[in-house]
């Protein structure tokens, strides 16, 4: 089941690629990472692999048809390389809860984070910052108690939140805000430090590089 | 694990509510169905149960915190009432594939179906119809071979596609098109007939009622 070569198509700045790579690192799976050079001119391999959405990330595993959509890929990795540490919680209710917060991150929180950095409209920026502040407060509350969102170890929700976490720091850097602080978000800051674990640190883009990317994107828009 | 009262908050016209109810019916779970009367004035119970998105469907199971998001609820139902027929495919790759097509239905196909009915702009309608036609052709291809998308029995993807299938018929009725026909979509039509299975037929809104709802929505917009 877990045999065959593994390839990931992604881009370095995409949190969706990052989470796939983190999951593979946690499971100690060797893979080839193929960086998509340009979003304007997509590779043949990407277009062939995901003709429906034409977007990264894509996981190619052995002779199977390629798999798309980051959350689906992370679940696939967890199920196929089941001998490694478990990514999804064991309990059905906790699994549903983790999936819910992942949906929140993808549908609301990350789009707001990105708009807060790249939007040129002051009104959009203000509305997005309100959403981001609300989101950061919710995540602070969620991060209380255990070492990770997944409990003792990095799990599904850690991967999802961890893949967008540096964007919060990018906002603090670019907009001179203090979304993250010892006074307001002590647990989230501690979690962030723990998350910079050896399995994930090489995959995270880094705040400075990501801020540069955000500013370039803003100039383009 | 599967003990405790079950309640579903939903609306009759929402495919997202419908899929939760179909999953419960397939598992022979008794539940109370609470219809949200108005999207403008949401019930206290809904706002308390899903404060993040404030939307249906919501599943309340025993003393657990309520669960939101239809696809997450369907997976939860499958995992908790594991003694009933399996909803998700057993194979990890097939599970990923089913989840991918479910994402396609929710992110692209259903929004296009709805726009094709309710949009007042001819341009939007034309573009949406092109997306719908492409989607119907893909689903026809997917439905070839086995009795159901899930194989011998109704499964995850049957529930997801089945919950929006009547919208295709609504378009054919309202726009006088022939998206579904014996010549072009014989497999999808056969699948639709098989899908009207006793476990699901009482939950589907029916084409006439749904068309009336769509036209009302159009007039409102």
From TrEMBL, chains A, B:
Alphabetical GO biological process terms: glutathione metabolic process; toxin catabolic process
Pfam families noted in UniProt: GST_N
Domain GST C-terminal: 91-221
Major subcellular site: cytoplasm
Catalytic activity: RX + glutathione = an S-substituted glutathione + a halide anion + H(+)
GO cellular component, one term: cytosol
Domain GST N-terminal: 4-85
UniProt-annotated location(s): Cytoplasm, Cytosol
EC code: 2.5.1.18
Keywords assigned by UniProt, alphabetized: Cytoplasm, Detoxification, Transferase
SUPFAM superfamilies xrefs: GST C-terminal domain-like, Thioredoxin-like
GO molecular function, one term: glutathione transferase activity
Family: Belongs to the GST superfamily. Tau family.
PANTHER family tied to this protein: GLUTATHIONE S-TRANSFERASE, GST, SUPERFAMILY, GST DOMAIN CONTAINING (PTHR11260), GLUTATHIONE TRANSFERASE (PTHR11260:SF673)
Function recorded in the entry: Is involved in the conjugation of reduced glutathione to a wide number of exogenous and endogenous hydrophobic electrophiles.
Protein name per UniProt: Glutathione S-transferase
Species per Swiss-Prot/TrEMBL record: Gossypium barbadense (Sea Island cotton)
């Amino acid at each position: 089941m877990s045999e065959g070569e593994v390839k990931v198509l992604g881009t370095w700045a995409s949190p969706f690629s990052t989470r796939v790579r983190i999951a593979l690192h946690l499971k100690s799976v060797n893979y080839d990472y193929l960086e998509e050079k340009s979003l304007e001119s997509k590779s043949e391999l990407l277009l062939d692999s995901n003709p429906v959405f034409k977007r990264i990330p894509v996981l190619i595993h052995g002779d199977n048809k390629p798999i798309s959509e980051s959350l689906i890929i992370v679940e696939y990795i967890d199920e196929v390389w089941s001998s490694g540490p478990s990514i999804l919680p064991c309990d059905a209710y906790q699994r549903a809860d983790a999936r819910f917060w992942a949906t929140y991150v993808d549908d609301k929180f990350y789009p707001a984070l990105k708009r807060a950095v790249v939007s040129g409209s002051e009104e959009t920026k203000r509305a997005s910052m309100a959403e981001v502040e609300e989101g950061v407060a919710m995540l602070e509350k969620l991060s209380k108690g255990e070492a990770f969102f997944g409990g003792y170890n990095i799990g599904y929700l850690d991967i999802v939140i961890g893949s967008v976490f540096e964007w919060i720091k990018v906002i603090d850097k670019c907009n001179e805000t203090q979304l993250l602080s010892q006074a307001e978000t002590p647990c989230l800051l501690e979690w962030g430090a723990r998350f910079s674990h050896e399995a994930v640190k090489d995959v995270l883009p880094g705040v400075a590089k990501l801020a540069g990317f955000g500013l370039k994107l803003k100039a383009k828009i």
